[in-house]
Specification:
Largest sheet: 5 strands, mixed
Order of helices and strands: HHHEHHEEEEH
Structural class: alpha/beta
Strand order of the largest sheet: 2-3-4-1-5
Helix content: 25-40%
Oligomer: single chain
Radius of gyration: 17 Å
Length: about 180
């Protein structure tokens, strides 16, 4: 019985340290990850995942983001741009609907499941009622932007990665990609 408890602790510790290593993607997600591999440092790289509801899009998007920021042993996420191979500024912006970004929304659920335990922190902005920024132990930071904010609020410091979930208003997209 003691051996079973020790084995369970080891497994839980391994999952907490690298959740993506235990993650199995669906075929559409695997194609999305392959399309994101090998970005060109001298140009803007945009990768789209077009999906229907219930197809694992939020989970796939956060998986890709986690692999970029933390790295993983999962063979789907090896080489550039994953982990230490990221060639750009380690600052991201997450953009989505307020509903998706709420504490029990699909994005936050995926973050809590796919980011390594203890490897990141998030903070709440004043009066927003949701997380608005984060930081990792790998040198990354991010801010969070909702579609109901004015587009000019997206004008800020340079970003090396823009993570967008759901169709984005053109004015917000313009402000985000010029960062």
């Amino acid at each position: 019985d003691r051996e079973k408890v020790d084995i369970r602790r080891l497994i839980a510790g391994a999952i907490d340290a690298d959740p993506l290593d235990f993650y199995r993607s669906n075929p559409a997600q695997a194609r999305f990850y392959a399309a994101a591999a090998n970005p060109k440092p001298e140009s803007l790289t945009i990768v789209e995942l077009l999906k229907g509801n219930g197809a694992g899009g939020s989970w796939g998007l956060v998986s890709l983001w986690a692999a970029i920021m933390f790295g993983t042993k999962n063979p789907l996420f090896q080489g550039s741009p994953f982990g230490a191979a990221w060639p750009f500024l380690k600052s991201a912006r997450l953009v989505s609907t307020r509903e998706s970004l709420k504490d029990r929304g699909p994005i936050q659920k995926a973050i809590s499941e796919l980011f390594p335990v203890g490897a990141y922190t998030q903070s709440r902005g004043e009066g927003r009622g949701l997380f608005s920024a984060g930081r990792t132990n790998t040198g990354w930071d991010w801010d969070i932007f909702t579609f109901d904010q004015a587009a000019l609020q997206a004008a800020s410091a340079n970003k090396g990665l823009i993570v967008i979930s759901e169709p984005i208003p053109e004015s917000v997209l313009t402000e985000c990609i010029t960062r």
